[in-house]
Amino acid sequence: MANQKNIKTQRLSGAEAIIKCLLAEGVDTIFGYPGGAIMPLYDKLYGYQNELKHVLTRHEQGATHAAQGYARISNKVGVVTATSGPGATNLVTGLADAQIDSTPMVCITGQVASHLLGTDAFQETDIVGISTPVTKWNHQITKAEDIPSVLAKAFYIAKSGRPGPVLIDITKDAQFEEFDFLYKKCNHIRSYVPVPETKSGSVKAAAELINNAKKPLIVWGQGVILGEAEAEFKAVIEKAGIPSAWTILGASALETSHNLNVGMVGMHGNYAPNKLTNECDVLIAVGMRFDDRVTGDLSRYAKQAKVIHFEIDSAEVNKNVKADVAVLGNVKDTLTQLLPELRATNHDAWLQEFKDLYQIELEKVINDDLKPKVAEITMAEVIEQINIQTNAKAAIVSDVGQHQMVACRYAKFKETKSNITSGGLGTMGFALPAAIGAKIAEPNREVVAIIGDGGYQMTIQELGTIFQTKTPVKIVVLNNEFLGMVRQWQQLFFDKRYASTEMVNPNFVKIAEGYSIEAKKVVKREDLAQAVEDMIKSKNAYFLEVMVGKENNVFPMIPTGASVSEIRLE
Amino acid sequence: MSKEITYTVSIYTENNIGLLNRVSAIFQRRHINIESINSSISEIENVTKWTILVIVTEEQMKKVIGQIEKQVEVIRAYYHTDDEIIYQESCLFKMKSDLLFEAPQIQNLIKDHNARLVTVNKDFFVIEKSGRTEEIETLYQTLKTYGISQFTRAGRIAVSKERMEISKLLSLFNA
């Protein structure tokens, strides 16, 4: 293997070997938190500060989300280090989030010395057992000599095929033990097929369906971004003239302003693509997995359509929606093969149907969101100001809830990998640490975290990380003094019984100032534009709190159990 | 809606600690009860074969197989109906030795059911029986009337009638 990066055999401790492995994998930044069982590694890190930057978060969960943000904006593997016991269990939410959102991540945890395993030793926890269902792969190392090969596998597995999180648990004695170190990158595991073979004829069969379609609709997902297939995707939709809608994680793979971009599908997606899912004759899914938030009631989802599924994970094919044609493989390859088979055409009359329905949504929802007649500021107005002030070039890192849906609906994207959010797991508290990781990975990009007052307080301690590392992220808290999405459901489906959703909040500006972060609070509409402008112009981290309507709802909405065509505008 | 039937799942895996946990979690998430499970070496060196018995619909079965095969260290997973395999189950009955005198017909029952006397001492004797599920069930029901002190049944083991092209697959992987 000509490209393999070999390092000369060296006598090293396990701890130093871990660092050498990370460097060999091109890692320059790790996120973590020290503790007893990982101290040998941290001790060695001290000597590698110039090559390997360690970002000390304020909680291990923050480290995982920061690593996720880092990975999502750069398509590189996010790396996390933590100690055993509580350090390790604090990783679980981030692992689960990365697993369901296919984010490449390698977590390295320290473990008690091997002779103590299974004895309920201090800070011992069975993290391999605990993390099994939320990792793509995990492994415990008890001998230093296993470190290079296992870490090589970890990086290969995390990054290849459908990416995901890997956890490697390393006992303290293995970190101390010395051995002859040699690193060989892994590019093959006999039991593992990262990219399934594209069945012969499947691309042609897909092309035939598409070429004969009168009303084709594409729904694309994160697979386009993970597969770095943005250009191939655009070429396909432009040649075949197909209206294309996105899932929440697919957002930004195609610029918002593109004529064929017809908006977001799903529970709070746009009216037209949801409604017309049940009118298209061919539904083409590209790198997406038909999540229940996308499909609504499956028994009434696109039943009239032939379904083509371009997918890298064969277990996703026919899992939720039966595919008439499955095109397995990396979408970058399969879309490349598809392009020459497609007939150049347009579907202008069909595209017009989307535009007509957009007009309805504009009049019934969007105008009220963007140009409200009430005094209270809406969340959408804030997002619109961010679009204007950043020239729609910011990476938007959103948390979970109403503000997330509004951010995804109203953010305008010009660049790919610009929408970083917890889509599958819906992890409140994701955004603040994820924004830190994203900014560290791409310091030249504007990174704006959009967070609700609830989620903000779940990982608010990461303001300390911003303070210490001077990471210039922009933090926008849209404060409605409610856990807004739950309150909206209580209003619509639980007789307005607002059980435990009202928030009595602290002075967020003072808290930010306590960390020496410039901070401002906006209550009146006339102050909003200037405040957003000041925030974006700042070269430093900046906190902006905007008081928004307390009981505003996010529409459109597909109620749980309803069909996509039953999408409600009010 | 397709019917729930018995499927024999054969999984070829790397012999790695923790993998069983990972695979059994896939059944657990979908509330599928594992009726029996057996782990053994296989025809290929360093490859483990698991035989798992579940009662599910074919639709469920396909989805579960997909999720099992997706695991990094699973080499291949297959599912078969009872007609598609040759299988055996095996069990042990422990009974009081007095019964051999009180109910001597038990000795004929052992012969008739193609079972085997493993050991006899003055307190108890042990019968071993291998066969298909219903054969074991029949013997169990028969012996129950005399009083069984202990009963245990091993996981199903099975070979498929059609070739499982696992060796070919492995040689491809290694190529």
From TrEMBL, chain A:
<dbReference type="GO" id="GO:0003984">
    <property type="term" value="F:acetolactate synthase activity"/>
</dbReference>
<feature type="domain" description="Thiamine pyrophosphate enzyme N-terminal TPP-binding">
    <location>
        <begin position="13"/>
        <end position="128"/>
    </location>
</feature>
<keyword id="KW-0808">Transferase</keyword>
<dbReference type="InterPro" id="IPR012000">
    <property type="entry name" value="Thiamin_PyroP_enz_cen_dom"/>
</dbReference>
<dbReference type="GO" id="GO:0009097">
    <property type="term" value="P:isoleucine biosynthetic process"/>
</dbReference>
<dbReference type="InterPro" id="IPR029061">
    <property type="entry name" value="THDP-binding"/>
</dbReference>
<comment type="pathway">
    <text>Amino-acid biosynthesis; L-valine biosynthesis; L-valine from pyruvate: step 1/4.</text>
</comment>
<dbReference type="InterPro" id="IPR039368">
    <property type="entry name" value="AHAS_TPP"/>
</dbReference>
<keyword id="KW-0479">Metal-binding</keyword>
<dbReference type="Pfam" id="PF02776">
    <property type="entry name" value="TPP_enzyme_N"/>
</dbReference>
<feature type="domain" description="Thiamine pyrophosphate enzyme central">
    <location>
        <begin position="203"/>
        <end position="338"/>
    </location>
</feature>
<keyword id="KW-0028">Amino-acid biosynthesis</keyword>
<dbReference type="GO" id="GO:0005948">
    <property type="term" value="C:acetolactate synthase complex"/>
</dbReference>
<dbReference type="InterPro" id="IPR045229">
    <property type="entry name" value="TPP_enz"/>
</dbReference>
<dbReference type="GO" id="GO:0050660">
    <property type="term" value="F:flavin adenine dinucleotide binding"/>
</dbReference>
<keyword id="KW-0100">Branched-chain amino acid biosynthesis</keyword>
<keyword id="KW-0786">Thiamine pyrophosphate</keyword>
<keyword id="KW-0460">Magnesium</keyword>
<dbReference type="InterPro" id="IPR000399">
    <property type="entry name" value="TPP-bd_CS"/>
</dbReference>
<dbReference type="Pfam" id="PF00205">
    <property type="entry name" value="TPP_enzyme_M"/>
</dbReference>
<protein>
    <recommendedName>
        <fullName>Acetolactate synthase</fullName>
        <ecNumber>2.2.1.6</ecNumber>
    </recommendedName>
</protein>
<dbReference type="InterPro" id="IPR029035">
    <property type="entry name" value="DHS-like_NAD/FAD-binding_dom"/>
</dbReference>
From TrEMBL, chain B:
<keyword id="KW-0808">Transferase</keyword>
<comment type="subunit">
    <text>Dimer of large and small chains.</text>
</comment>
<comment type="pathway">
    <text>Amino-acid biosynthesis; L-valine biosynthesis; L-valine from pyruvate: step 1/4.</text>
</comment>
<dbReference type="InterPro" id="IPR045865">
    <property type="entry name" value="ACT-like_dom_sf"/>
</dbReference>
<dbReference type="GO" id="GO:0005829">
    <property type="term" value="C:cytosol"/>
</dbReference>
<dbReference type="Pfam" id="PF22629">
    <property type="entry name" value="ACT_AHAS_ss"/>
</dbReference>
<dbReference type="InterPro" id="IPR019455">
    <property type="entry name" value="Acetolactate_synth_ssu_C"/>
</dbReference>
<dbReference type="GO" id="GO:0009097">
    <property type="term" value="P:isoleucine biosynthetic process"/>
</dbReference>
<comment type="similarity">
    <text>Belongs to the acetolactate synthase small subunit family.</text>
</comment>
<keyword id="KW-0100">Branched-chain amino acid biosynthesis</keyword>
<protein>
    <recommendedName>
        <fullName>Acetolactate synthase small subunit</fullName>
        <ecNumber>2.2.1.6</ecNumber>
    </recommendedName>
</protein>
<dbReference type="GO" id="GO:0009099">
    <property type="term" value="P:L-valine biosynthetic process"/>
</dbReference>
<dbReference type="Pfam" id="PF10369">
    <property type="entry name" value="ALS_ss_C"/>
</dbReference>
<dbReference type="GO" id="GO:1990610">
    <property type="term" value="F:acetolactate synthase regulator activity"/>
</dbReference>
<dbReference type="InterPro" id="IPR004789">
    <property type="entry name" value="Acetalactate_synth_ssu"/>
</dbReference>
<dbReference type="InterPro" id="IPR054480">
    <property type="entry name" value="AHAS_small-like_ACT"/>
</dbReference>
<dbReference type="GO" id="GO:0003984">
    <property type="term" value="F:acetolactate synthase activity"/>
</dbReference>
<comment type="pathway">
    <text>Amino-acid biosynthesis; L-isoleucine biosynthesis; L-isoleucine from 2-oxobutanoate: step 1/4.</text>
</comment>
<dbReference type="InterPro" id="IPR039557">
    <property type="entry name" value="AHAS_ACT"/>
</dbReference>
<dbReference type="InterPro" id="IPR027271">
    <property type="entry name" value="Acetolactate_synth/TF_NikR_C"/>
</dbReference>
<keyword id="KW-0028">Amino-acid biosynthesis</keyword>
<comment type="function">
    <text>Catalyzes the conversion of 2 pyruvate molecules into acetolactate in the first common step of the biosynthetic pathway of the branched-amino acids such as leucine, isoleucine, and valine.</text>
</comment>
